[in-house]
Protein 1
Amino acid sequence: MDFTPVIEGFEVLLQPENLMFCLIGVVAGMAIGVLPGLGPAATIAILLPLTYSMDPIPSIIMLAGIFYGGIYGGTVTAVLLKLPGETASAITALEGYPLAQKGQGGKALGVGAVASFIGGTVSIVVLTMVAPVIAGFALEFGPPEYTALTLLGILLVATIGNGSKLKALAGAALGLLLATVGRDAFTGELRYTAGSLELTDGLQFVPIAMGVFGLAEILYNLERRRNGGSIPVATDRVLPTKATMKESAAPIGRGGVLGFLLGLLPGGGATVSAMASYGIEKRLNKGSTPFGKGAIRGVAGPETANNAAATSSFIPLLTLGIPANATMAVMFSALLIQGITPGPQLVATDPDLFWSVINSMYLGNIVLLVLAIPLIGVFVRILYVRSSILSPIIVLIVCIGAYTISNRIFEVMVVIVFGVLGYLMKKYGFDPAPLVLAFVLGSLLEDNFRRSLLMFDGDVTRVTGHPIAVTLLGLLLVVVLIPILLKLVKSRRPDLIGEDENGTGAGAETETGAKVPASVTAGSEAGAASGAESDSASDAGSDTASGVATGPNGDRRDHPPRSPDGSSAERPEEGAAGSHPSQT
Amino acid sequence: MMDAAEDKSAPAAVDTGRAPEGQEPAPETAPRAGRVTNLVCGAVTSLAGVGALAVAMDLGTGSLSQPGAGTWPAIVSLMLFVIGLFIAARAAHFTDAEPITKDAVGVAVGAIALTVAVQLMPLVGFELPSVALLVFWMSVLGREKLRLSVPLSVLVVAAVHLTFVHGLAVPVPRLF
């Protein structure tokens, strides 16, 4: 492999101007990311307008900063408030919040920052090696392969994802339908425009993402928390000590490998890997602190895995042009706005831009580490600002940002419409992530589906001449059949498989065998978990039903573990996080 | 597993959804919507599918060898319709929906205020509607005191003006 473009790319990145953009991105990403309920997808969507008027390379660098800043912002709220910004951070809260309660929140945040850095960096290094290879392979893909791949991606996101599978599939179908609005690329006919000129070119992705992730969350919080925000637990020294790092080293190593591999999966890579890492660390724990009481290994492993997975999910995006989750869908859109079309052609046709995207991730990750430790106190201060003040300010920024997309009020109205739709979806248990992802992939799927039909002259059996497509369709079938088979087995041998997954709100089984209650998985990219227990195939967390508190971000709340008499079990500690500052 | 039956038997899970002044409702007491709500969710999903299918049929579904503009929307609409039916059929099994409480009035008022402010922006510039919106959200919906919300709103709008109009040169409709 020729590393010249990689090295040349660094020369550009390390210019002071670009470093400053990265710094601004990380700060802005953390500032928005620490707001409870706003995950990385919402953070990027809200801050995207900042990059519109910039050149591609500084804008990519800033986006990388926002991406990492947004992810770490979720960790801060997970540790200090037990309100993870995204589902994957819910696992961090399991040990991070007990640590914070013991006055060691700084330790958790410091280890979290280092673990995030290592996890992210490991993934970027491997991504640097394998991305061009996969992209080269993907160049052979034609319409049937892309049809199968896109279908598989949407189905995985809907089924591995959060909450009820049926409702997730409904969201995905709605997303596919929304993607058809506008002029048909094949026949030129207008579809679902209702005579509106603004809809002729179809709906744009960014206002939809801003609506269902950003505004919807604020509207949801408006209903549930009209009296301010939670008080974060005070933090101590953030810089990890030698002893802490020694204890965390092995979990970080294991988490990095696990996270990278599982992050390649569409849908729930980051969450699944964090859960799996937690399960492994719990089983291997020989430390003095039991899990559930603030074991630092339970922060280090999942945080590394979560960040490694978040970064490795760039691989399907950059090499195949397929976003693997909602955050990647927003990144996909952000890159498109800059004239960069992620996909197999990118590395061949525009290597400078391709390597800029990858190198900017190194930079974003490093800047985050450098900034996170000294500035953590500043970001924690944001948590003290009441949501009654912060929410309207974010709403205004979202509105002005939406206007800048096309300089039309129409886009702002789209944000409002989708904000209300997103609010209703959250209320009724529909995860917005499949809708958003299906919307992004909708036109790609339809185009390739129709091209395939034209190629085969309507004879779909001719797909058998395309082995990759057949393999992908086979996988698709497996994804559909596995839950049905599991259900059958469960009905006959309930002792073999655990409790019901979603739909009943109890939890979701993942392909690793790990099991998370719907409350954890309900979060999606935009929201957070409410009650979390990790229970990997074996034992992880079976006794860790610590019930990560649902906060303003709420998402769908699940019932916490209950005692046999039906009353709510435990939660004596919740008073600390659940109290609110009095009104001034 | 927490199913609907257990839900009913668990007194802690049932409350009005309103929190005491100054506190958010505890997650464990967040009310769950019942079967009817999920039934309506399924029905609305199916109806959306039927509506979209009717439009798709009008567009023309063509054939497999010559797909028309309505082919793909028809397939997706049909999926939506069927999924809606499944949701309705399994309505009693879902516990992930929440009922709309009277606190949702604040959400509706907030969304309407936002819409009005946005519609005013092209007419009078973004500054005045933005200040009015911020003051309204902070003081009426957020119960902040006016002596805090008014100066804060003016400051925020000034900062947004400086950032977007002067810093990023975005042609936002503006008064100044």
Protein 2
Amino acid sequence: MSEISAAIGFNLIVISPTIALVGTALVLLFFTITIESNETVKKSITLIGILITSFCVFLKFGLFFQNGISSYFTQKILLDEFSLFGNVLISLILLFNFLPIWDSSKQLKEKTTEAIILTLMSASGFMLMVDSENLIMLFIGLEIGSISLYALAGLNRGDKLSNEASLKYFLLGSLASCILIYGVSLVFVSFSVFSVYNFALGIAYVGPDSVPLTTSIGVLLIFIGLLFKIAAAPFQSWAPDVYQGSPTGYVGFMSSIAKVSSFIVIARLCLVSINIIIEDFNIFFLIVIISSALIGSLFASIQEDLKRLLAYSGVVQSGFILSGIVSGINGTSASMFYLFTYILQLIGIFIIFSIINGKLSSEFNIQSIQGLFINNRFLAASFCIFMFGLAGIPLTSGFVSKFILLTNLWAYEKYLLVSILLLSTVAGFYFYLRPIWIATIEKTETPIETLKLKKSEYFVITTLATLTIFFGLVPSSLINISRWIVQSYL
Amino acid sequence: MTGLIYSFILLPVINSILVFLIPNRRKELFRPLTVYLSLIPLGLCLYMFVNQNLKTSFLEVDSIPWITAYGIDLIVGFSGMSFLLITLNCLLVLLSILSVNQEYAESKGFLGSIMLLQASVNGVFLAGDLVSLFIFFEALLIPMYFLMGIWGGSNRRYATIKFILYTVFGSIFILAGTIYTGVLSYISSGKFALDFESIASMSITTSQSEILFLLFTFGFLVKVPLFPLHTWLPDAHVEAPTAGSILLAGVLLKVGAYGILRVSIPFFTEGFLRYQFIIAFLSVVGIIYGAIVAIVQIDIKKLIAYSSISHMGFVMLGISAGRYLSLEGAVIQMINHGITSGALFMLVGFIYDRRHTRRISDFGGLRKSMPIYASIFLFTSFASIGLPGLNGFVGEFMILMGSYPTFKVLTSVAAFGVVLAAIYMLWAYQRMFNGQLDNDENAVLTDLNSKELVAVGPLLVLMLFIGIYPSFIESYVVQDVSAIYESISNLIGVSQ
């Protein structure tokens, strides 16, 4: 038995975060259907489950430092820097989003546990996705994660917009998944491989000049499927509606987790599988990045709904992150830094939104944050910090990430991209500063009731805001980590 | 020494935190405390003048590793020129806090923002590398955004957004230039070394130098502002609160000119020599255009705003001529304009607090009801026009003298700017202060009180002092100017 296990690379530690998440979900399910349990028990089970997941990620680090980059389960699961980084990010997303998710789920009354289980299952799927070496595993992970997200978007069944969001997300997401799996099958047709490493070997074997057309189209389709998940233009059409319609408490989780895992998979594909033929896709990526920057900036400037604004801003940010990933190794490292800091800001913003707007509500008119400064100074200040971070104003992490990303792009002589992205930064100053204006400067005629925050909410928001400032002042440590991620490809 | 340099950036930040910590019910404490707190940086400036040798070109004092993986360090340093500007900044911050009316004095957000602005402007002048220069250059937008946005006039939203977008649009060019310099430095030395010393020793080709000069200069010129990039300035000045206007005209405009003197010309001299005529031409257009538009203004604050465009045009003409005398004149004019326009905006603020209007036609005969105010206004106007014996004359005279050998026609045209300045300032004075007291509201106005006199007094003393003893300022900028001039003269000498 042990020989067989060794031969197929059986190792539970590698998939332990996924198992922990699924296990927690099952325990919760078990508790709901058998034992009458109160909310505190469920809450602690969820929290303990997430903490165990983080601990399992910690264990994976030990395994990685022992074995180095290694594959398990007959080349299905991969342990490398990207997967570790993805696992850490997903655990952080779960930890930071635990409060809004729990509070929103509690408001759903009898569906509380279902909502929690959906988030945990979704996270487990995305954990599997960032760990996948095999393209089929990638698809399975993505589907497990996404299907839970479709359900999460429509949790608030009484709300028309929520239903619309869920249906739209489901239909368009399934289409994207179809495109992705079609791409995978085309790649398999040309090389008979599923593993990202073997795929690279196949391309190297036939030589970059004689790569079959099926492969190129297959890779293109895989990218389209993944770019859909990160809402890069022109595949962004679902994002505003879904962000707007979904219950506010879940949007931070939904947007960040899908982005993190898709970006990590894209980065791995670009660096490992197709790095010798990536020039063939330059035009495609150029179009995607430029249209993301332009469409995102343009539409973000005219939004009247804050969640839609954040969706379009996410389109711009996706363009930024993608530009680093597709331009080379150092660019990828800069993008990973960018991804990390962006996710922190995004989660922070959506926690604040869920506090102001109510956990389950959908529409969030920009005027409803009017007078936030008088209402709650703390929330207004942190809101400003996150918005400044997204805009890329110095002294926040947003500036550092934009600075090193553009430096790398310039070093790769991608002047067109640099100029377009810089211009979108100027537009960003317009649409990020507008909510700040409304929140802090505009005066309200109608008196507003004071928002009360729980201690834990204070703690989470303070942590995120502090991290945003911290990485803006002392970015060196995180930049070293982001360079560590790509070190084995240098 | 190192600690002293950092304290110019950190002290204002600490001060603003202290002000924020006072409970809201002790409103009467806000202003006194702020005044005492902002005396500390000014006192430190004076201490530096007495105890340190400030007559030096740029000297790196300390460096902090920032991004070790890229080899980017943040560096602080100082020079005579930057210290004069820092002193001006600290002085204007103190006086503008003294001069604001009760409404602002009871708002700690307002006082705190002013001190944050002071910190970031000091940071620009102390920055010893391009990254920290850029960081502080952009960071000063945040306090300015809130100052103009919360405490501005009725059309403040438009003015603030215009100001921010113009500046950011300029600063992306500076960012692009910084990145390009970093990449070039990486190619030559293997490090993204962006400190001034390494950039000075970096060898770059003529075309690279031209591109970099354009990138940096464009960004800084938006801030100066040079015609035709000036349109944000009148709006910003009209809508900004008095203290914001004082600092905007007094120091923020100097940030742009300082950047050109510190970065664009010494490091990218070849680019400067190629484009100096265009800048000089636009400066002269700005001088004449600003002055002519100022003549027809009906709002006194807008008039002074346009006069700023004209005066900063002189600064840019002096810089672009690239002669020793003209460069020195430009630096002195920067300081002088800070003092004079700061005083003018403060005086406009005083009358606005009393009458809540700035239309020139609403006034008339103020000389009778407010004799002290009228004489101070006349004195400041003379300084602004450039009457010999007052500070404005020194800088403009040196600029015109120095620029003439390089741009004969342009300088001759620019000299008319001085005449036009006399027209718009004196005509405005005549309409506001002379004639009959035909408006009853003007007749009951009270003259300046002691607090306001204290606020404007130091500036008047400085106008007179610099006017009769300009070599005091000159002695502090000599080293800087010779370093800049050397980079130009070396190149001209080689090419001839």
